[in-house]
Amino acid sequence: MLKESGVVQGLKLIDSHVHIDLDNIESELEKYIREAERKGIKGFVITDHIILPNIPASDYLIRGNKVFLKDLSFLKCSLTTADIKRYVNVIKRKESSGVYLGAEIDYHEHCEEKIKEFIGMHPFDVVLGSLHFVDGYCISRKMEMRSFLDKLPAVDIHKKYFTEVRKLVKSRICDVVSHIDLVRKHSTPVRFDDYSEEASVLVDDLLACDTGIEVNTSGYVFMGDSYPSADFLALCKEKGLDKITIGSDAHKAEKLGQNLERAVEKLKRVGYSKIVKFKNRKPEYILL
Ligand SMILES: [Zn+2]
Ligand SMILES: [Zn+2]
Questions:
Q1: Using CA atoms, how far apart are residues 198 and 166, in angstroms rounded to an integer?
Q2: Which ligand is located closest to the Cα atom of residue 130?
Q3: Residue 266 CB: number of other CB atoms within 10 A?
Q4: Distance 130 CA to ligand 1 centre (A)
Q5: What DSSP string runs through 176-202?
Q6: What's the gap in Å between 256 CA and the centre of ligand 1?
Q7: Which ligand has the minimum distance to the alpha carbon of residue 131?
Q8: Ligand 2: distance of its center to the CA of 187 in Å?
Q9: pLDDT higher than 80, residue 72
Q10: For residue 68, what pLDDT band results from cuts at 50, 70 and 90?
Q11: Residues of 11-44 as b/e, b for ≥16 C-beta within 10 angstroms?
């Protein structure tokens, strides 16, 4: 590994968005480490969802995150101190194997201080901020998005979504916004031009708040493209946003690093020559 003016070379394949089953975290983490070695992945960040008490969440996140939410109902979800301590300790012990400690936190308006307080209590390398809910609909769930589309035109949902993401960015709770155009996942197609104004002010906010984005490759499986779209990425490039991570959003060891090369190709096509990874919430640039 060479260091040249703050840029690390030769660490191309860092998967900065990975989930793990907390119930079996020790054995699962060993599997992930073996899988990373097998695939030549130099490091990965565990970024499980954190759901805090008394913060709105849908049953999607609750069911999807039984790891953290052992005894819960729709409105009462909690991550105990014991859970987070174990999560932090197990992951931190594997630092020398290229494992980083992260979290993915959903933005909910009026809960910013509670979220910040929680984040500040733990030694995360990176915090991903995400927005899965708009007007109470979980837009990453097909059926919920369908109901939402029955109520509002897709273009309006896109605009609403990006307005909410702007709030997430301006709250400064995260280092990186994950899957920044997730609204595309189950939507009927909307032309980028129809929401480019919203996207443009969002990128301005990202720059003003020194917040990065990721190229999230999980979209290749669901919709044949990663998040964000090439148009969105080109806008970021044009405006000078260069803090970009890549992540698979894998929920199983075998998916670790899936399609990261495609993310790299996409970034190169748009004109990017480096990405970032975070350590202690500080970015380190990596040449592609
Ligand atoms: Zn997510
Ligand atoms: Zn995720």
A1: 9
A2: 1
A3: 20
A4: 6
A5: EESSTTGGGTTSPP--GGGTHHHHHHH
A6: 15
A7: 1
A8: 19
A9: no
A10: very low
A11: bbbbbbbbbbbbeebeebbeebbebbeeeebbbb
Among the bound ligands, the one closest to the CA of 47: 2
State the distance from the centre of ligand 2 to the C-alpha of 258, rounded, in angstroms: 14
Tokens of 222: 């669901």
Instruction: Specify the CATH number for 8-287; select among 3.20.20.70, 3.20.20.140, 2.40.50.150, 3.40.50.80.
Output: 3.20.20.140
The rounded Å distance from CA 204 to ligand 2 centre is 24
DSSP letter at 96 equals G
Torsions phi, psi of 140, nearest 5?
A: -90, 0
196 CA distance to ligand 1 middle (Å): 22
Q: Is the pTM of this model over 0.85?
A: yes
- Report the pLDDT value the prediction gives residue 137, as an integer from 0 to 100: 85
CA distance 132 to 62: 13
Rounded to an integer, what distance in angstroms lies between the CA atom of residue 74 and that of residue 223?
29
Look up tokens 């994950």; give the residue: 178
Q: For residue 49, how far is its CA from the centre of ligand 2 (angstroms)?
A: 7
Q: How far is the CA of 140 from the centre of ligand 1 (A)?
A: 8
What span, in angstroms and rounded, lies between the C-alpha atoms of 12 and 151?
A: 43
Q: Which helix (H) or strand (E) holds 133?
A: strand 133-134
Nearest bound ligand to the CA of residue 102? 2
How remote is the CA of residue 4 from the centroid of ligand 1, in Å?
Answer: 33
Distance (Å) from CA 2 to ligand 1 centroid: 33
Cis before 153 (ω within 30) = no
Q: What does the pLDDT read at residue 86?
A: 87
